[in-house]
Amino acid sequence: MKRAWRLSSDAAQAQLLLYQSHGISLFPSKHKTVPSFITVRFTRQVNTISNGLYDIVALFSEKPGHPTKEDLINKVATLRNKLIGESSDSVRVCEILDENSEALNRHYPAGSALLELLNQLDSRPSLALQVFNWRRKGLHVDCPMDVYEYSKGIKVAGKSRNIDLAVEIFKEAANRGIKTTSTYNALMGAFMFNGLADRCQSLFCDMKRDPTCDPSIATYNILISVFGSMMLVDHMEATFQEISKLDLALNINTYNHLIAGYIAAWMWDDMEKVFQMLNLSPVLPNLKTYLLMLRGFALSGNLKKMEEVYSLVKDYVNENEIPLVRSMICAYCKSSEADRVKKIGVLMKYIPEEDYRPWLNVLLIKLYAQEDSLEEMENAINEAFEHGTPVITIGIMKCIIATYFRCNALEKLENFVRRAEISGWKVSRSLYHCKLVMYSSQKHFNKMQNVLEEMESFHLGCTKRTFWIMYKAYWNCGQRSMVLKTLGQMFKHGHEVPWDAFPS
């Protein structure tokens, strides 16, 4: 399949430069070699980077007296901050926009100021929608809305979960003779964002029947994303095959959506195949690609490759991707790595205290119990009690009990049992059997009887194992009368007893 350099490649390089300018290094200097499974060809990219730099420099090097892109961004940022400060008052928002509209539109090309403002309000879709509606209904604005503004408005409506408005804007644009691939893609994206896969696919069919519009690579990327999120792998792969037949140039979003689709379906081999295909193409992996691969390797338990990718995006992940940090911790917990506790300890430092997750807390309790790390286990147990997180899995409770037993921590076990009973944790006979054994080893016979009463209060009757623990304890200490009493209780409850169990 033919592949051509597209704007996406330049954008990927510009994005890479942007990451580095903010201290995000995809290839830190301390890593002298790139991991073996990642093929990055720097030589081939030099000219591309240079061209991308010329394009960026041009934005900031216009003649004095002409507004620059930087000037636009700064002025719009000031306006954005004013709007955010008054976002709860829709009337005041419109007043601020009215006060600034003439100055912005006089100095900048029509629509560019609004588009920049909507981009800067991307994380605040409700406010962005107010801004778009103001522009849409503003009769005082001389220039009519263009395709870019309509497309952005459709996207904003979709992000605001207002699908009816997104469809209305699309139809309004069509009635004004603005029905393009961009508006179709925007509405498909809105459907995708809101999980409306059927409507997204239906609109794609309408687009293919429309003689005025041809699907672009962005159109197919949306379809791949929709099918991937629904784990419709066959549909996703068929869409990719159609792209190949049309000889459309793939961009980084195509690869990222494919990787994400295979991750959703837990198809790890196919995930890696797409990544290898990407490394052999003219398209460059971006930050999102590495974050996806890191997640995939963590979920699949491929620790070696997980650590290789993590080394490339470590600083960014530690600061901005706490869910990925948790996924890596989970991967270590499920592994048999010799130093997994140490590696988990390092990662835990990046999780804020307020970012508590019950499932992770319980997983760590189990891990520390399996490693006989009593202090760490108790710290995790205390955290669970503080957050009201009950452990209701018998297997994990048995791991905890076994740790107390192996560490001969009777007092700590007593304290744990009391708190577990009060806090609604899973209480089982194993818990009390462990107490019986530990009391018997220290000849605390009165406390052994108390354990039986505790069991009864939780409607846990004595089993054959319970009586045998009692029998062995009394037998080893020569408590003949208690031995006979215990054997009698065994008979009473219908448990079979060997004849040689009776003392001579």
Main traits of this protein?
504 residues, mainly alpha, elongated
Describe the structure.
It is a single chain. This protein is mainly alpha-helical. Helix content is 70%, strand content 0%. The chain contains 26 helices and no strands. Helix 13 packs antiparallel against helix 14 (268-279) and helix 17 packs parallel to helix 19 (358-370). The chain starts with 6 loop residues before the first helix and ends in a 12-residue tail after the last helix. Pfam families: PPR_2 (PF13041), PPR_3 (PF13812). Keywords: Repeat.
In short:
This protein is mostly helical and about 500 residues long.
Number of E-type strands: 0
Structural class: mainly alpha
- Chain-averaged pLDDT: 83
> Helical stretch count?
26
The unreliable regions are 1-34, 36-65
Helices and strands, in order, run as: HHHHHHHHHHHHHHHHHHHHHHHHHH
**Helix residue percentage:** over 70%
C-alpha end-to-end distance? 90 Å
C-alpha Rg (nearest Å): 33 Å
Protein name: Pentatricopeptide repeat-containing protein
Keywords: Repeat
Pfam families: PPR_2, PPR_3
PPR repeats: 251-285
Architecture blueprint of SSEs:
Elements: H1 7-21, H2 42-60, H3 69-85, H4 90-107, H5 112-120, H6 125-137, H7 147-159, H8 163-175, H9 181-193, H10 197-209, H11 217-229, H12 233-246, H13 252-264, H14 268-279, H15 287-300, H16 303-320, H17 322-333, H18 340-348, H19 358-370, H20 374-386, H21 394-406, H22 410-423, H23 429-441, H24 445-457, H25 464-476, H26 480-492
Family: Belongs to the PPR family. P subfamily.
Organism: Canavalia gladiata
Keywords: Repeat
